[in-house]
Structure prediction request, 154 residues.
Amino acid sequence: MKVGIKKIHENEWLVHIGFASMHLDRFSLELLAITLAHVRALEHGEAHSILDSYVQLAMRIKELDDKGLQQLTRAVENRDLLDLMVLAQDDALNDCILKNVGGMVAKQLKSDMQKAEAVDETTGKEAVTRVVKTLFELETQGQIEFYNAATQYI
Prediction:
């Protein structure tokens, strides 16, 4: 089966799968990429964690500036941030989040991180999905922007 992807507008992609075609937003396109990676791994007898793929997608948070990160943390539930931090086990991500949530919330999240137990896959996937979906919605609305080494302005 052939799969083709073409960017139509800023947040609109045309995806061809076999004889079917559909328009997707960027978030849905990322979910399609995760699904295709999962299917490809299964075809080759390899293991693939969808949850790990969601967490890797959420790691884009580290590409936000402080203003964008503050907007994101205000838009998502603290419990979802905590679940993401527990699942990611990434000190840089944790530092980014903690320095941009405000003093009292940062103290609470640090305390909860120390007491936190492992997050089950279903709960983790739902929490990370909410964070990532909000991330893409804010980007689509132009409220946040990702910055990395490839970012250039004219």
Notes: The two ends are 40 Å apart (CA to CA). The CA atoms of residues 98 and 106 lie 5 Å apart. Residues 121-140 form the longest helix (20 residues).
